[in-house]
Task: inverse folding
DNA sequence: GCCGTTTTCGGCCCGACTGTTTTCAGTCG
């Protein structure tokens, strides 16, 4: 079952879509959309709030608050049911097709009775769309193509996949003569966990050269749009890449605009409007005279709006504008703050590099400390034994001091069994410097069982970090069902850190849970869970997720000096 | 339907590109 906030958020979003499809007031649709996001991102459980409490959520007024109250009382919202009865679910699904929005979806349903993707495909094949207003030959072709893409690709890719493509393109474009600056923007710059398309921004007085270079790259399979300042292509991986070229003096305004998010930009533009200014990708202008005020750097643009520069991972309209206005933006944790990795493997279990190779790589990264945490015996396929573990500890101790200031911690990644027990008893556990504990099986326990299981692990005085706490694999396995708020509370109380696992297909906890857990006073460990030397570089994605969760250096135990870290790892034991 | 440095009504972000139009609507970001 989804968290009540997500449930209500999804319902409000559905209502917004249905209002848009039925040609309802566009502003009303927009308000429901905003409310959907506010509710989903709100820290408190909305099912526990009364109407007055609900109205304190931004963009929720009397009408929406009453609807939410009714939803929890009756299990449904009347107006949503009414529109659902009028518009089949398939019509809303049609709008997932690129170039097909709510208006056209409604025309298809109204005039041709089409209410699903297969029906649309059949209608196209049968030529049933000819003569329909707004549906010329080119539109038909676009629809076919859109359906194909939708079926082929699904939608988004893991952030590391997009990052590699983007960094490659940025490097190619940066080398073009006349290219002043070039960088990626959009959701990639905001470090979202998955990426739909890649936004590249460049500054140049010769945009055509850059456009031409992009369209002729080997990795480009199709040119979607090709204009004066904007070109969109699709790569051979199926990713869409949008390139915008602006004049160098507009760099700051353009970067701010193309970084988004859209809701964040709506907020900054509203602030501009209130000051009789107009903000666009070309700059910040005076409304009356049209005079350009600033545009060179993001810093300038935010400053003129009365705001400090806001780090991209915060730009989601999740309270960053309010925090910025109040001078309360967090100083986000950065990769430079990280003093060591606390969850890594070697070829003693399922890693591919030796202890010596991993430790040398850690030293090369300039870490102050580094934990080796191979799997414990209950993950039986890894064939761990007490003897092997103790032998590894001796090897670790022997390496100590070999790499200058690098201190080594000998640890393990325990399995949290279905009852919440772990591999060893207190005597053996006491010999480790650090213990990560993770769920590796029985992912589909009931919510109650899973909650108890995780709580019991937190209560174990030797468990320091809950590894990849929800067990999700992005696009493959859903997060476990558990009362996460109860887990967060227990972590804060017992001095158990939650992991922000940096592996791009995990990113677990995710940004929203990190933000929620932080409110309980939980501490975090940003770890790579590296199984190979190259995996140590995945840290950047964990950092991005932590930043999106508003974490500061103080929230993250592996930014702390070793002394402070060791005190935390004792977990109140004498 | 929400909200208030425009405060209980009247606003609500802005621009590029496409396709089907013959002056603009729809979609997207």
Result:
């Amino acid at each position: 079952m989804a968290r009540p906030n997500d449930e209500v958020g999804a319902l409000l979003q559905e209502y917004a879509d249905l209002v848009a499809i039925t040609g309802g007031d566009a502003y009303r649709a927009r308000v429901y959309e905003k409310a959907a996001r506010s509710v989903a991102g709100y820290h408190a459980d909305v099912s526990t709030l009364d109407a007055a409490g609900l109205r304190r959520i931004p963009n929720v007024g009397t009408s929406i608050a009453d609807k939410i109250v009714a939803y929890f009382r009756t299990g449904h919202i009347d107006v949503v049911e009414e529109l659902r009865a009028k518009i089949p679910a398939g019509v809303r699904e049609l709008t997932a097709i690129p170039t097909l929005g709510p208006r056209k979806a409604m025309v298809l349903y109204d005039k041709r009775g089409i209410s699903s993707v297969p029906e649309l495909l059949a209608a196209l094949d049968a030529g049933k769309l000819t003569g329909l207003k707004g549906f010329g030959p080119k539109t038909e072709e676009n629809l076919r193509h859109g359906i194909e893409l939708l079926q082929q690709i699904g939608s988004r890719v893991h952030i590391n996949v997009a990052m590699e493509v983007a960094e490659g393109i940025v490097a190619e474009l940066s080398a073009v003569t006349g290219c002043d600056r070039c960088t990626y923007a959009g959701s990639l710059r905001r470090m979202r966990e998955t990426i739909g398309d890649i936004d590249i921004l460049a500054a140049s007085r010769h945009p055509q050269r850059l456009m031409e270079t992009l369209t002729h790259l080997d990795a480009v399979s199709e040119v979607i749009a090709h204009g004066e300042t904007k070109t969109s292509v699709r790569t051979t991986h199926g990713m869409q890449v949008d390139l915008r070229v602006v004049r160098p003096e507009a760099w700051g305004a353009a970067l701010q605009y193309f970084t988004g998010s859209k809701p964040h930009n709506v907020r900054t533009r509203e602030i501009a409007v209130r000051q009789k200014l107009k903000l666009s990708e070309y700059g910040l202008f005076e409304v009356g005279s049209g005079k350009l005020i600033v545009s060179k750097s993001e810093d300038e643009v935010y400053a003129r709006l009365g705001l400090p520069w806001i780090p991209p991972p915060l730009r989601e309209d999740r309270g960053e504008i309010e925090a910025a206005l109040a001078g309360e933006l967090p100083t986000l944790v950065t990769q430079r703050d990280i003093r060591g990795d606390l969850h890594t493997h070697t070829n003693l279990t399922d890693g591919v590099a030796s202890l010596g190779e991993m430790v040398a790589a850690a030293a090369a990264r300039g870490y102050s400390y580094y934990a080796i945490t191979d799997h414990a015996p209950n993950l039986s396929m890894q064939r761990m034994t007490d003897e092997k573990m103790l032998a590894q500890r001796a090897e670790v101790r022997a390496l100590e001091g070999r790499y200058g200031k690098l201190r080594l911690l000998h640890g393990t990644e325990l399995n949290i069994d279905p009852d919440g027990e772990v591999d060893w008893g207190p005597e053996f556990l006491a010999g480790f410097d650090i213990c990560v504990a993770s769920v590796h099986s029985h992912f589909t326990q009931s919510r109650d069982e899973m909650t108890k299981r995780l709580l019991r692990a937190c209560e174990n005085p030797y468990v320091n970090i809950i590894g990849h706490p929800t067990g999700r694999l992005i696009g493959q396995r859903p997060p476990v069902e558990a009362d996460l708020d109860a887990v967060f509370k227990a972590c804060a109380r017992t001095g158990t850190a939650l992991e922000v696992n940096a592996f791009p297909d995990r990113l677990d906890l995710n940004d929203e849970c990190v933000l929620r857990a932080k409110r309980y006073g939980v501490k975090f460990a940003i770890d790579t869970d590296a199984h190979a030397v190259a995996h140590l570089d995945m840290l950047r994605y964990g950092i991005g997720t932590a930043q999106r969760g508003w974490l500061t250096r103080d929230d993250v135990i592996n930014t702390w000096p070793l002394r402070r870290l060791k005190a935390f790892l004792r977990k109140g034991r004498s």
Observations:
- Chain A is about 45% helix and 15% strand.
- Chain A has a mean pLDDT of 92.
